[in-house]
Amino acid sequence: MIESIPTALIDWSRAQFAMTAMYHWIFVPLTLGLAMIMGIMETVYYKTGDEKWKHTARFWMKLFGINFAIGVATGIILEFQFGTNWSNYSWLVGDIFGAPLAIEGILAFFMEATFIAVMFFGWGKVSKGFHLASTWLTGLGATISAWWILVANAWMQHPVGMTFNPDTMRNEMTDFLAVATSPTAVVKFFHTVMSGWVLGALFVAGVSCYFLLKKREMQFALRSMKVAAGFGLAASLIAAFTGDTSGYDIAKHQPMKLAAVEGLYEGGNGVGLTAVGMLNPQKESYDDGKEPFIFKIDLPKMLSFLATREADGYVPGINNLMKGGYTLPDGTTALSADEKIQRGKIAITALADYRKAVKEKDSASAEMHRKTLEENMPYFGYGYIKDKSELVPNVPLNFYAFRIMVMLGGLFIVYFIAVIFLMWKKDITRMKWLHIASLALIPLGYIAGQAGWIVAEVGRQPWTIQDMLPVSAAISGIETSSVRTTFFIFLVIFTVMLAAGATIMCKEIRKGPESSEQ
Amino acid sequence: MDSTYIFLQQYWWFVISLLAGLLVFLMFVQGGNVLLFFAKSEEERKMMVNSTGRKWEFTFTTLVTFGGAFFASFPLFYSTSFGGAYWLWMIILFTFVLQAVSYEFQSKNGNLLGKSTYRFFLMLNGKLAPFLVGTAVATFFTGSEFIVMKDNMTETMMPVISTWASPWHGLEALGNIWNWVLGGAVAILAQILGAMYFINNIDDKRVRNTSRRTMLWNSAIFVVLFVAFVVYLLLKDGYAVNPASGEIYIEPYKYLHNFLAMPVVTVIFLLGVVLVLAGIALTLLSKGFRKGIWLTGAGTVLAVMGLMMCAGYNNTAYYPSTADLQSSLTIFNSSSSLFTLKTMAYVTILIPFVLAYIFYAWRAIDRKKITSNEMKSGEHTY
Questions:
Q1: Does pLDDT of B310 surpass 70?
Q2: In chain A, domain spans
């Protein structure tokens, strides 16, 4: 048996989760986006009876199928990994966290699995209407599945609707609706799904431009571009809007994440948002006194406005969060990291004492410890923090990932507007620069999505569940070597799958739609 | 304990048993893929792959839902078993991961590994997954080596609640011959189901002959393994729990007692066994009989449910620990809270609806049987 949790075990377990999640997120957004685009195209076919739209839809479905298979393969690992590598987490919050996963299976996955079979094998076997419904239900299943898994993720970022039960030694759900419709979950859902739709649109536009560039399947390509551009613009605008809401939500519930994203060490009133900047690579810890930036350009008061909706609102920086002492929105004074850790340790000791008292049937003492536990429960997770510097997430990774995401998001909006405008006013079949730019945007779409998840997940470190459970207490007690081995097995399998999937996709694209029109 | 709570724990164990039954039945996909090995021509293999290829997602999804439902209803099992029997579950998962892309990729240009590699992945998953799932289910009776110490949560250096006592992390289950017996029975049953499914789903003489041929000796092995396990189970000491104190103790003939104490479970189990055997017998005896999959399939669901209910009901520890008897999991000490079980019970009301649309879509696709002509028609095939 293990005496203490080695840091290497935590690192490898995190690495494995991060790697499998990142691979999964290569395939999911395209699934979400393509599903909608295929649905729109098949709907046009259904309404007009125009066979060309059917061929167009079927081409994208073929690519959808290749992508979907790897999405499924990478997804199963994520679900079971909560048990295999984060077993303590699974017990402590299974009461709340298991529910969305189970609902996801029952409501979403079966819908996807059932209707994707009809979508692929049902042509000519089922009616046109049933087939169209199946295509939409496949996409709906994927989207519902995103809802529930993002509910689960949002709950980890901002836990609501539960209470800790010291007798069963776990958190128990008290309000299902609070969990399922938490504002954090709603914002996360729209932001994440929209980013998937944006990627789907970029993918369709890029691949269509490949045909324009090659001067093949021109009508097919223009048809696809039209759907992609409109759809992409709508999705990227909603993504930008929900991104802003998401920032406000983070400011309220995860101020440390916000500070890390901004590289903000000393906060204050009327803080500016860093538009462009370069971090000082010499800065190694939050309290080494070194300048955080080599240079930066601020948008005055913008961060305060985004975080508090007031131009002069107070935004704490990393040092403020560590030192405490500032006034919180509810009028109380913020605790320092040391005080929080202290309160966390009191909570954990009270929990141990409570359980001992219950075993010894000393109800008076049990009641007393229970009260102490309840008073300090909001800081419970801090009791596991060994060094307060663990509380600061990786600043450069968050800072740059965030900027990459936002800038690319802005670029996509401009791109979709440009495509719509050009298609309306001009003949884009000869605009070589546009074709090349569209192709180049496909990988950028993937990068934007990955960068977003880096901010979401690295930004909340060291917490598995914000303020409640750090990664070091969420883990399974297995040997580091086992996790390292499975990490490399997954890495090899997923990389080979990705390579094979990408090659197959390129070949299928080169082949083009089933019936050439010109 | 609140009687609603007790009822919901029993109800959720029923749901888990049902999902386990459906999962084992749906592993006809895995079993069917093993038969690729016995097919004589590429044409036969192509029809087989396309036949299971239209159903594999159901098996996959049922596995995922089984995991999710177990997580939501009995989280202590989820954390203890998955986090402890790490390698057993990981190997099962690896094979499912490989399977998931193998259908879609095998016949496509640019798949890098070649068709035979992907077919090998399908067969690997077909052989290993049912066997290891069967092995894992067998440990519900034979026990595993784990320790659950909730007080560990207050040890900040080593807060892990469930720890595995065997350094083999799940692979030690292969050291027990009875785990092999049940694992083997499940693996062979999957192949029998696969053969029956092909007989039903593929309109081709060669495939039907191949399937029937494999069924003959598979059925003989299955009956021997299955009967051996049932006899062992009925004679074996079991893990009982005192409902008042929660104390776990060894009770001789516990599982025999469970069957005697719960006639409904016994009837479900026996009916399942009869249906399994009837489906096999009718298929082997009558060449024109093609509905074996439905008889044996339904029988499989019922028989597995019967076994699972025998493992969990009547104050039995369904996941016994041989390392520390008192750590054994029961449906009482490992379940979610009353609130969660109740909320989730409302969700299960949707299950019949889900089953209905699966049935409807399945029929719509299968109305026309797979033929060699369809494989050449240029429609979507694997």
A1: yes
A2: 260-323, 337-384
